[in-house]
Structure formats: structure tokens, C-alpha cells
User: Fold this.
Amino acid sequence: MSKKKYRQSKQRTKILEILRKTDLHPTASWIYDRLKKEFPQLSIGTVYRNLTILIDQGMIQKIENGSTFDRFDAHTNPHYHFICDVCGGIKDIDININEQIDRIITEKLPMTIKRHKIDFYGICPECERKKK
Amino acid sequence: MSKKKYRQSKQRTKILEILRKTDLHPTASWIYDRLKKEFPQLSIGTVYRNLTILIDQGMIQKIENGSTFDRFDAHTNPHYHFICDVCGGIKDIDININEQIDRIITEKLPMTIKRHKIDFYGICPECERKKK
DNA sequence: GTTCATGCAAATCGTTTGCACAATG
DNA sequence: CATTGTGCAAACGATTTGCATGAAC
Assistant:
């Protein structure tokens, strides 16, 4: 999150708008496909460059999700994720972040904990329904 | 974790041995460099193929660590990880896994939680010392 | 002897980058 | 008009794969 000055760009504005309108935690290429309709010349490099800038601005965050590709999220307040074992979809988990956990661990162990990340795994309601 | 039958291979045996002897959570190429001394003909493809087999056998697990490369761990009982913001090193966190967490979340939310993963972030004692 | 594992090299995939041109401030 | 952002294509780095040969059973 730097204070670097960036110019405005139509592509970047739109990328942020798209990210804010979805809770799908999209990949770069999903965003690219979306935006391609509006900017037929768009290149995937531009999408990546803008995602990097938006992260630097603190507007979005990158989610590490154990896949080979990154996902992005405009929901930047701390929250946990649920990842479906069947469809791979990611959902936000709306429970309080327990900041005590960091303190407890720091007391017990020789390292200073600044933050933590919890990912829950299981089967989402949609996939659960399809199984029957 | 399938029941597929695999033949024995010297390379695979040694890869598992190396993984069991370290707590560094190595990358594929670290293992490759190590093993190259003993098997000068070794190819990185063989390392990857064997790591995949060992995962399938449940002997090791892959750690997603937010980097561009995977790390591997022969320590397969459930445990948490600590990732140093400075050096990127991964350490095992030796506290009890709270299985209640999964149950509590499952009760509150529409999805069935089977397991969870917690990664703690901060600065490891070694890097903390170097800062001064 | 049939099948699986290996080494080698080429292919793949997501992401990054160098470059010349266009858009921003 | 100086600088940043863009499209394009090439480069990149980690991982995977096709193929002919070698090892396991």
C-alpha cells in the first residue's frame, strides 16, 4: 500500500467496478473475458498490471487459494474463506476475526504473530444439493 | 489417497527420506538439487512425478504458501503453519487443532465444514534478531 | 514379458515484461 | 510535453507431458 501516484485509466476503473460487483473472487482471466466485451483490444497484461496497482492502492487483495492461479477480492477487511472441495468456489465467511488467537500464539511461541488466515474446506450447499 | 499400486523406485524412496529429515518444507527444486548428487542423471520431471505419487499415497502433503512455487511436507498429521514475512520460511505451529471450530462454523452457516487450515504470519526469531 | 518409472526435451499455463504508441494530467 | 498506461508479443518460471529406454515384478 504505497503512496505512489497513479493516473486514472478507464480499464482500471472498470476492473475495480467488476470486482466490487461480484462475490466470486474472480481470476485475472475471468475479469479479462468480462472486460473484453467493452474493450475489444484489451490485453491480459493490462489486467494483471492493473490488479497489481489496485493491490498497491489497498483497493483489493490477492487470495492464495491453493490453485495454480490467483484470485482477487475487493473485500479487503479481514475475513475468512470457505473453499468448496467439489467446485472450488470460494465464499466469504462472516464470523468475527478472533484477534486473541494471534496474541495467544505469540505468548506460547518464539515468533511474533501479526495476522492469520483461516480457510475452511468442505462442500458448499449447491454441490451438496447436486449430490442427491 | 488412492489404492493404486506403485512399484518401488530408488528415487522415490530417497525423496521421502529427504522430506522426512527436514523441517524446511522444501520446494521441488531444493529436493532436486539434493538428490542430483546421488543420481546425477536425475530429472526435475521425475521429482515432480514422485511428489505427486507420494501425495496420492498420503505420505506427504503439498503446502500452499502464497508463493509462485509449491512446498512439500512429510508431516501429514493436521497442524498449522507460520510463514515469515521477511524470509518466507515456513515453520510448523505446535498447538492443538481445535476441531470445535469446524463444528461451530457448520452450525452457524449453510455449509458443511470438514477441515480448516490456519496460517499465521509475522516475523520469525531469526529475522527479528537480524533487524537490530 | 508386461507394465511402470526414468531421463530428456518440448509443451503448457499463469504471469510478467520490453517495446512503440496512445492517453493522462 | 513529460510521464504513465496500453496492446502486442515475447519471455519467464514452475510444473506437466510425450516419447523411447530402463527397471520392477
Summary: The longest strand of chain A covers residues 112-123.
